[in-house]
Design a protein that fits this description.
Length: about 150
Amino acid sequence: MTENTARKKPKKVFLEGPISPQFVADSISKHSSKTDIGAHNIFMGQVRADVKGGKEVIAIDYSTYREMAEKEFHEIRESAFIQFDLNCMHIYHSLGLVNAGEISLFIFVSSKHRDECYKASRFLVEEIKAKVPIFGKEIFTDNSHGWKENK
């Protein structure tokens, strides 16, 4: 059964804490035996050490209304499979504390051709930012906080 024929089942999206480089490497490694794939595209969202009001962001504490977020992720995933000729797709987002420099969003799409991967990856990032109710509490060096705006 290919990923295309198994699309109706919601996938696990959320991981506690940062997404590790080893997790990313393992995801890539699992695809080396899939010989019908000609292109992969990976997007990784990393927490930036932005300076706001003179204070540096040292981490983001991610939270969500899980049931609603999982529903949105599922709908976005299904929409991408309809719009783009993809072989498979993996989306993971962190919950909890993620330090500056660590990965909080990992999108991995695969297709026969690169153009579909590029388009699908961009679509997924924009849809996730616009529609999924994930909240980021930015933690500053003085331990104060503010709420992140998705851009």
